[in-house]
Amino acid sequence: MARLSDLIEEFIKSMINDMDGAIEIQRNELASRFNCVPSQINYVISTRFTNEKGYYVESRRGGGGYISIRRLNTNSAADYIMHIITSIGDKISQHTCEVFINNFVDYNIISNREAMLMRAATSDKALMEVPMDRRDDVRAMILKNMLTSLTVI
Amino acid sequence: MARLSDLIEEFIKSMINDMDGAIEIQRNELASRFNCVPSQINYVISTRFTNEKGYYVESRRGGGGYISIRRLNTNSAADYIMHIITSIGDKISQHTCEVFINNFVDYNIISNREAMLMRAATSDKALMEVPMDRRDDVRAMILKNMLTSLTVI
DNA sequence: GCGTTATAATAGTCAGAGATAGTCAAATTG
DNA sequence: CAATTTGACTATCTCTGACTATTATAACGC
């Protein structure tokens, strides 16, 4: 049986996605949407939207009160990636490409496995079929495309 | 006379088969189906669904709790990938490529993020710089290279 | 008008009840 | 004896509700 807390968590997360990383909700409104007591919302927030999980929560009581939830890091990771994408020109060598990829691993933006996939896709070995003088162009496109896919979440 | 534990083991295994390698059960429900105490389920799991025997078990207590059992792909994942690699010819269309990638996700061989990276690297968009009549060759090489990298880990 | 005091509208806390699963050792079986 | 079965006790997660805390706004007294 699906837990109510999980449903609420999902709902909030998709709201956050829709709203580009930050939302402001009203506890009672959300509770009544899910037919639960308001304190259940606190439970969900305190167990699922913690700091360690990358969220920052603020709230205010009284008339016009609210709970705001912001997703941390994710956006700055996306920003960082976007920055790198724009800094990559029309061409990139295999070596420079690897430097970038290693940086992403260092910054915890991608996992080791993901790094291996990216290296594999941009290696000279993979681009053997492409004439040498066009390889760095193709590589740049592939790398940019992969990076862009990461910013979509 | 067949021991109860063996019956439960068989039951779980056939469920896993029916469900393509992964199930989620409720301890109490299963116990009452076999008219035994709940802890018997733990016994069966700890003696028959161990890591060495190729299973991965997770559980959660509390309301809506569950026990999930997954059959590991261990070496067969690498075997499966190698098999796919050899079955990919010198050319592959974007569409066929995506079918493969989606299958890998379904078989838990790659994560969703990894799938996105692979799609991004093999899309026509990424290969724009490559002349149309060479694209499927380059794509095949990139895909094979990425797949090979996965077997190394 | 201005400061003070209710009132209403929020959100927070915490402890207890309910719903699961885990552990371990004694009893049983074959 | 080794494997299985059982059950009492424990651990963990979820849900609920009573009580508390905070804030905005309206009402009041001067």
TrEMBL record, chains A, B:
Gene Ontology molecular-function annotations: DNA binding
Domain CtsR C-terminal dimerization: from-to ranges: 78-148
GO BP annotations, alphabetical order: regulation of DNA-templated transcription
Keywords from the named record: DNA-binding, Repressor, Transcription, Transcription regulation
Keyword Transcription regulation listed: yes
Pfam family, any one: CtsR_C
Domain annotation CtsR N-terminal HTH: ranges: 3-73
Domain of life: Bacteria
Signal peptide from the UniProt entry: none
Stated family: Belongs to the CtsR family.
Designated name of the protein: Transcriptional regulator CtsR
Native species: Thermoclostridium caenicola
